[in-house]
TrEMBL record:
SUPFAM superfamilies: CheW-like (SSF50341). Involved in the transmission of sensory signals from the chemoreceptors to the flagellar motors. CheA is autophosphorylated; it can transfer its phosphate group to either CheB or CheY. GO terms for molecular function: protein histidine kinase activity. Residues 37-169 form the CheW-like domain. It catalyses: ATP + protein L-histidine = ADP + protein N-phospho-L-histidine. It is an enzyme of class 2 (transferase). Keywords: Kinase, Transferase. The lineage of its organism: Bacteria, Pseudomonadati, Nitrospirota, Thermodesulfovibrionia, Thermodesulfovibrionales. GO terms for biological process: chemotaxis; signal transduction. Its EC number is 2.7.13.3. InterPro entries: Bact_Chemotaxis_CheA, CheW-like_dom_sf, CheW-lke_dom. CDD domains: CheA_reg. This is histidine kinase.
């Protein structure tokens, strides 16, 4: 374990070990975000790009005007016989442009719950180097970092668990 600790510390990270007799041990490794690479799903809302980590993506489905009408104003969709609540990222990030006729729901699975994120377009898989956000942007709930796309465009990386928690804390829990 000493070798692991030295290597993690050389990368400006930390190792935390907690043990409880008869229960077990928890080992937490923390590395700077600038060293993290994730596989993500690149999505687009209006002219803005976002990356949702593939580790939480379950599937993608279309959300049509008919689906919205059938949900009677609630943020839910019926997917394979199951009710899936969703968060409109357009509303969350306050993007005020026309909504396309057909949107996409990226269904995530977080802590054994499925929650969808509504986006305009799903672009595809994208291997992402996570860059830390500056001081001014670190307070944005639901965003864990950013990445620079091949054409120089910046895409925000969605932190699904924190975004879901932020929406629940804002009193929208009944919708989700």
């Amino acid at each position: 374990m000493d070798v692991v600790k030295k290597n993690i510390m050389a990368l400006r990270g930390t190792v935390d070990i907690k043990s409880k007799k008869g229960v077990g041990s928890t080992i937490t490794l923390k590395l700077p975000l600038t060293l993290a690479i994730i596989d993500g799903l690149l999505v687009k809302i209006s002219d803005d790009f976002y990356v949702i980590p593939l580790s939480v993506v379950h599937e993608c489905v279309e959300l049509t005007r008919e689906d919205i009408k059938n949900s009677h104003g609630r943020h839910i969709s019926y997917v394979r016989g199951a009710i899936v609540p969703y968060i409109r990222l357009r509303e969350y990030f306050m993007i005020d442009t026309p909504v396309p006729d057909v949107e996409q729901i990226v269904i995530t699975e977080v802590e054994d719950h499925r929650v969808g994120f509504v986006v305009d377009y799903v672009i595809g898989e994208h291997q992402t180097v996570i860059k830390s956000l500056g001081r001014l942007y670190k307070t944005i709930e639901g965003v864990s970092g950013a990445t620079i796309l091949g054409d120089g465009t910046v895409a925000l990386i969605v932190d699904a668990p924190k975004l879901i928690s932020a929406v629940k804390l804002d009193g929208v829990e009944a919708v989700i």
